[in-house]
Design a protein that fits this description.
146 residues, 3 helices, globular, single chain, alpha+beta
Length: 146
Amino acid sequence: MRLRRRVAGLAAAALAGLVLTGSAQAAADGPTPIPASEVGTRSLSTAVHWGTFGLDTPHWNALNYIGARLEADPSWGRYQVYDRGDDGDFTVQGALAPLDVRLTIVCAPTGPHSTWVSVIATSSNSSWAEQERNHIRAAIIALRLN
């Protein structure tokens, strides 16, 4: 139960970071917050679509495959990946600049050989976020990591 709370907190923090930033640019120190002078002066209409599922594989294995594919496989899209999932935070993050879509994939261990996966897509266009969430979720399942 403690792990689920931690994972939920990680997902919420990742999502909050994506929603608060108005940029797809990756910064070494994380997302850039909106300057205080601009808070309340512009609309942040961001659509969020997410889906979860389980895999019968260790979380590190899922992160390795997903991070590499998101970065290198053109059939997954032309993502700029700024967190490949190799730094111990359970997440892979990237941006699909032409469509203004940000993607966070959380892979958390639920057992020695099982992983809970959450695919979260955000965009100013709800349809784009939904399509990318569906596309990436299906691509991860098609990897047959089970």
